[in-house]
Amino acid sequence: MPTHSTAGLWGVAVLLLCGLASCVSQDSGSPLVVQRDSAGIEIVEATRPLWGDSSRWSIGPDPLVDLTLSGSGPAHEFFRVRGLKQRPDGSLVLADRASQELRFYSADGEFLGAMGGPGEGPGEFSNLQRVKLVADTVFVLDYDGRVTVVGPDMELVRVFALPFNVDDIHYLGDGTVLGESTVWAGLEEVVNQLVRPPTALVRFDLGGSWIDSIGARPGRESYSFSYEDNYGDGPALFGKEAQVAVHGSRIFYGSSDFMQVEELNPSGSIARILRIPDYPLGLTDGQVAAERASRLDVDLPPGMTLPPWLQRTVEALPAPVTRPAYANMLVDPSGAIWLELYRGGSEQDRPQEWLILDADGTWLGTLQNPDRFSVTDIKMEAVLGVRRDELDVEHPQVLRLTRDGA
């Protein structure tokens, strides 16, 4: 999403990632994990997957709950779903961006109620972005930096404001909120080249007051352009983007440049690095060409063509040598880190896949989603997400997760 000047033109026109031998496999004398210490930072390097070429976990294709099919009427019609989550009692909550509503359902998919709707008043939303759960309380981030807190019975608890450029929020478990904030300072005049503004990790109290910053790290890579009075920033080819996840007070950050995740303490210092050295991320010329072509392959109304400035911008995008390692990061209740393997725009016909690191850094293996299903949250025995059917209708679903031989 463009974040400064008139970058919206880009999106409209285009539609456009124990000691030395801490874990040894049953059939090999070589370690699965090598652990060492460097300047007080624990470094855990996984050498190969525990599961080998197969997967010992599986996601069942038949939904336990499908909210599109569990009822009828507008409450079971969805478009641009964000943040399907499961509360401790099994009930479900999600944001529907088409209606700008926060909707609640029973564990069986019965509609319980909704709050919100378009607007800027208390309990209303202008552009729903993120939904986070703190036990059975819901934190909702709107595009303008406004956070709405909703209680267990769908009651409005409070509303507080964060800076406009906070892109995501995470509850740290100590009564504070971690915000990801893009820092554009100093990049305003950079044009027609790749830029990667830092992501600042900033802590706020639950009233929205700033506490401290715990550092800045590489954020989202984009291409800054200026042609024919059109200027802004848009997605780079195979652009790398920072990913942040939280598990209790533990903060996980990854730049996606490599198959690596940093574990930070609440002050922002690196406590541990988990990585898979030499994980293959190289791109071929053909893959880059296909990705560039996909930016120009746009369904347009009859008689309409791509603006020349847009075609020129896409053709000028630098060709990367490597792809991002992952496009999303989630941490499940056991502390295992799930890294969604990156797929470019030209690769979206492939199912979503997740590389899983156990809490101790062991590389378990790779798990593939059912076709056309995207994960939003992970529990011990279920994954939540959205499946698009053949007609592109959205189905918020709960699928069974089986963890055999973990």
Structure description:
The chain is 7% helix and 44% strand. Strands 1-2-3-24-23-22-21 form a seven-stranded mixed β-sheet, with no helix packed on it. Strands 4, 5, 29, 30 and 31 form a five-stranded antiparallel β-sheet that branches. The longest helix has 12 residues, at 285-296. The chain is mainly beta and 406 residues long. The protein has three helices and 31 strands.
Number of strands: 31
Helix content: under 10%
Largest sheet: 7 strands, mixed
| Approximate shape | globular
Query: What percent of residues are in strands?
Result: 35-45%
Order of strands across the main sheet: 1-2-3-24-23-22-21
N- to C-terminal distance: 38 Å
Radius of gyration: 22 Å
| Poorly predicted segments | 1-26
What structural class should be given to the helix and strand makeup? mainly beta
Number of helices: 3
**Mean pLDDT across all amino acids:** 89
Note the main attributes of this structure.
single chain; 406 residues; mainly beta; 7-stranded mixed beta sheet; 5-stranded antiparallel beta sheet; 31 strands; 7% helix; disordered N terminus
Strand and helix map with partners:
Layout lengths: L7 H7 L6 E4 L6 E8 L2 E6 L10 E3 L5 E2 L14 E6 L5 E5 L4 E5 L5 E6 L11 E7 L2 E6 L3 E5 L5 E6 L4 E6 L4 E7 L10 E3 L2 E8 L4 E9 L3 E6 L2 E6 L7 E5 L2 E5 L5 E5 L5 E6 L9 H12 L11 H9 L9 E6 L5 E5 L11 E5 L5 E6 L4 E6 L3 E7 L5 E10 L3
Parallel strand pairs: 3-24
Antiparallel strand pairs: 1-2, 2-3, 4-31, 5-31, 6-7, 7-8, 8-9, 10-11, 11-12, 12-13, 14-15, 15-17, 16-19, 17-18, 19-20, 21-22, 22-23, 23-24, 25-26, 26-27, 27-28, 29-30, 30-31
